[in-house]
Amino acid sequence: MKYVKPLSLLGNALKTKVSVPGRFLGLDVGDKYVGLAISDPSNMVASPLSVLLRKKTNIDLMATDFQNLVKAFSVSGLVVGYPFGKLNNVEDVVTVNLFIEELRKTEKLKDVKYTYWDERLSSKTVELMLKPLNLHPVQEKTMLDKLAAVVILQEYLDYANRYVNTEPAE
User: Fold this and answer.
1) 12 or 53: whose pLDDT is higher?
2) Whole-model pTM?
3) What is the rounded CA–CA span in Å between residue 125 and residue 12?
4) Are residues 59 and 102 in contact, defined by beta-carbon separation less than 8 angstroms?
5) How far apart are CA 17 and CA 78, in angstroms?
6) Using one digit for the tens of pLDDT, what is the confidence trace for 49-59?
7) Which of 34-38, 137-141, 161-165 has the highest mean pLDDT?
8) Which of 63, 23, 33 is nearest to 123 (CA)?
9) Within 13 Å, how many C-alpha atoms sit on residue 6's CB side?
10) Which of 1, 6, 17, 20 is deepest in the core (most CB within 10 A)?
């Protein structure tokens, strides 16, 4: 896995010599779960995908899951939610850094690029949306993780599409 700057992720995808650029996978990394979202083929809209259970013992299995998702959805990069500015919540920063490092060590995603995107308030935004639905706590947690990944990815796509030249090359 290779880190790239946020705008480079979309810019590089657009520069490839394929008719349709790869899609992006959004990640909301938590202690127990990783929420996933996927962009549409035009990289304009994020949609919920799934939630992966996260344990110290299953990182190799998770890396295989990511490999399969990269192939199945033609993923060209990961947009990882990162707790920028959370000075008093170091655990969240460590959680994300440790997860990415563990994925890198598996070497199953060598060619996959990733970037970090500010996740502040993504979970809170989703919590406020889900509260009136009175869901079962387990169902609410699953929805929260998936939809927080959607918020992270959609915010990235909105920003990147505004600032990256999306006109086709001649």
Assistant:
1) 53
2) 0.85
3) 30
4) yes
5) 20
6) 999 988 878 89
7) 34-38
8) 33
9) 19
10) 1
